[in-house]
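Hypothesis: this fold can be encoded by more than one sequence.
Test: take the structure tokens below, design a sequence, compare later.
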């Protein structure tokens, strides 16, 4: 299938590693010019070099979602390095693990800014360009926790849940302009983040990392963790031209793990 995004311009947030880096590689493989951002310049440079070695086109900008000037920095980079925008992939790091009763005002405010406010503000700032040209893809990476809350991830379940109502509302407002807005929900995709969370659960439960990992895999019908490449392939499709009639959706990539309908 031709994804129809060759020459399109894509901004991928938090793409120094993990899911963001994988999505950037997948979009570049389809011919998109990708602009990646993150906090670690060395990793961003390496990712761009890898993409370009495979014939893709990539640029990077060092930026931190926690910075109050993040959105302004992104708008400047989009103008200078891409000359416009067709695809926006909203990806953020996850918050610290913990129970609901451990959430306090400082933690809520800090992560709300990075995981919700920056995402919405940046999207709103780039929307006029997409609407004017009659094409836009807004893809927000959330978590399967918005479908089935994940134990010991109370902050993530709470804050990513806020993106569900926002995305659905936005999708209905911009659909007539040729702009789609979807949520992509990773389950157990093997990244450094999964290793971190398994380590935290092992400590909380007084078990070994191997015991926690084994129990987790047993709960997945597919019988294994997913790969970044598998997840990124779904992301690339949702950003494609053939996916023009898919909007306001939440798509799980979880090996069948979520038990809800």
């Amino acid at each position: 299938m031709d994804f129809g995004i060759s020459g399109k311009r894509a901004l991928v947030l938090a793409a120094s590693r993990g899911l963001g880096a994988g999505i950037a590689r997948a979009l570049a493989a389809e011919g998109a010019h990708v602009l990646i951002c993150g906090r670690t310049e060395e990793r961003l440079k390496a990712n761009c070099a890898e993409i370009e070695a495979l014939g893709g086109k990539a640029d990077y900008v060092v930026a931190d979602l926690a910075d109050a000037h993040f959105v302004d920095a992104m708008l400047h980079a989009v103008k200078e390095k891409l000359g416009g925008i067709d695809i926006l992939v909203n990806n953020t790091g996850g918050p610290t693990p913990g129970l609901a009763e451990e959430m306090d005002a400082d933690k809520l405010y800090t992560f709300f800014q990075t995981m919700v406010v920056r995402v919405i503000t940046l999207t709103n700032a780039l929307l006029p360009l997409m609407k004017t040209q009659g094409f836009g893809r807004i893809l927000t990476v959330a978590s399967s926790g918005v479908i089935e809350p994940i134990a010991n991830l109370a902050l993530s379940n709470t804050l990513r849940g806020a993106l569900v109502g926002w995305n659905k509302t936005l999708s209905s407002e911009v659909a007539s302009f040729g702009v789609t807005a979807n949520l992509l929900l990773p389950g157990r995709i093997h990244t450094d983040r999964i290793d971190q969370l398994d380590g935290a659960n092992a400590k909380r439960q007084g078990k070994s990392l191997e015991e926690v990992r084994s129990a987790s895999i047993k709960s997945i019908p597919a019988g294994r963790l997913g790969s970044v490449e598998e997840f990124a392939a779904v992301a690339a499709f949702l950003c494609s031209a053939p996916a023009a009639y898919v909007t306001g959706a939440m798509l799980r990539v979880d090996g069948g793990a979520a038990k809800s309908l």
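The CA atoms of residues 152 and 204 lie 9 Å apart. The helical segments are 18-29, 41-53, 70-82, 105-133, 154-174, 192-205, 209-218, 228-238.
Hypothesis status: open.
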